[in-house]
Structures
1.
Amino acid sequence: MKRMASPALHLVKRHVLVTGGCGFIGSHLANALASRGEHVVVLDNLARKGSEENRAWLMQRHRKMLAVEVADIRDDEAVNSLASRAKAVLHLAGQVAVTTSMDEPKQDFDINAAGTLNVLEAVRRHNPQSPVIFASTNKVYGRILSDDSVMRQGCRYFPRDEHMAHGVRVDAPIDLYSPYGCSKGAADQYVRDYARMFGLRTAVLRMSCIYGPRQFGNEDQGWIAHFLIQAICGRPITIFGDGHQVRDALFVDDAIAAWLAALDRIDTIKGRIFNLGGGSANAISLLELLELMRGIFGRLPQVSHSAWRPGDQPWYVADIRAIAQALDWVPRTPIAEGLAKLQCWLVQRFGEAPQRDIRPIEAQA
C-alpha cells in the first residue's frame, strides 16, 4: 500500500502511537488520549468500513493534537518510523473476523502475527522504553466448553462446572481454534514473551465483546451493533446457531478506561495478560439481546436462523477479577444503558427504522 504522510506528522515529537486508530475501539482510544493532552499519531490503512468516517471525526475534534498516517501494519518502514519516536504504542490494528481468516489464512497471519512482530521489533530495536499494549481476543481460548459441558436454561447456555461462575480465568489453557485464533494467539504470546526475553514493557488485553457508538458492526464482527443496525435499517437478522450463545459485553467507554489505566500502570503490569470484558454481571445471550431490542424499538426484529459457524463458542464469559484488582477498574455501564447510547448514535447515523409488523422470535429447539 502506498503511504500517505499526514501533513501534521512532522510537528509531533513524542507521541502515543495507536495502530488501527481509525477503527471502532482505536478511534475512541485516540480521542481519549488527545482529550487528556497527549499528542497522538494514528496508523491505519483505512480498509475497514467506517474508518474514513472515524478519521474525519478524530481530525475534526483534535486537529492540533492528532495526526493520521495512512499505512499498513505490514509496512516495516512506516511502523519503524512511527514506533521509534513514540512514547507508547497501543496496538489495535488487525484482521478481526474468523470468517475472513478462513477465506484468507495467509493474509490473516501476515496482518495479525507478522504485523504484531513488526511492532515489537521496531520498539525493541529503536525504542525499548516505550510501552506496548496489545489488543488480543478471547478466541485464543477456543471453544472453551464442549457441547456436553454446557446446559441450556431459559434463553441461554450455562457451564456445568460451578468453578466457572465468574467466567474464564486468564490462566485457562489456550486452544487456538481457526486461523484467526492462531494468528491472534501467536501475536498474544509474542507480546508477552518480548517482556520476558527482551525486557520490553508490554501487556496483553484479551478482549470480549466491546460495543458502543462509532461501531459499524457486521455478521462477522461487532454483533451487538450489527443487530441494532439491521433493526434500524429494517433488515432481517440472521442468528447462526440456536441463539442461546452467551457473551459478556463491555461498553466502549469502560474498555477505554481500562486501556488508559493499563498504560498509566504499565510498570506494575508489564509482562502480564488480562481478560477485558463485561464479566458475569454483563453476560447476555443472543436471544436476550433481541428481547432488550424489543424494549428499545417497541417491537421484535425479523429473525432467521442458520447453521453454527466453525469455532463459535456456545458460552464465553471473561473472568475479569485479575484486571479489576490490577487496575482498580470495574465496568460501570449496564448493558441496557449501553444499548440505549449505542441505539441513539446509530439512529443519528442511519436514521429511524421503518415501521412494520414483525412476528415474535421463535427459539430453535
2.
Amino acid sequence: MKSLLKVYLFVGLLLCACNDAQQESVSSADVQQEQPSKIITSDMIEGLSYDDFALSTEGQRLTESWKKYNELAIQVSYLKTADFSFFESEKSTLLEFLDKLKKSIPENLNTPAVISRVVVLETMVLKLKENLKLNIADQQTQLNHIKDVMVAFSNLNWQINKKLEKDKYSKIQPEK
C-alpha cells in the first residue's frame, strides 16, 4: 500500500511539473506577442500621410548640378523603401555630407528661405539618425521621425519651386 501511495505521489508530482512547464511556455509566448515588432517596412512608410512636393521641371533642371541635393534625393527614395543605411552611417560622415549640401547650394537658390529649409532638413536627418542609433523608441516614434525627414525634404522642394516661380513672375513687366 505504501508503494502504491509513493507511485501516486510520484505521478502527481510529475503531472504538476509538466503543467508548470506548459504555463511558462504559454506565458513567454504571450509576452512575445505583447511586444510590438520594431521592424519598419516600406508598406508602413508608404502609409504615412503628408504632402509630397516634387520639383518642377525648371527646378529639376536647376538642381542637376547640385550633386549633394541629388544624392540626398536618392537617399530619401531609399528611405521610402525602408533602407536606412545612409541614415545609420557614422555621424561624422553624415555631418560632412550635410555641411557640403549647405555649402553647395546653387547661387540662384542661395536665399534665406531655401537655406532655412536645408537647415530644418539637416535637423530632421540628425534626429532620425539618433533615433535609429538608439533603437529604443517604439515603432510609431520611428515612423514619425521618418515622416519628419520626408516632410522636410518635400518642403525643401516646395521652397525651391516657390523661389523659381517668384523669380519668373518678378521678370514680368506691366504694360504701359
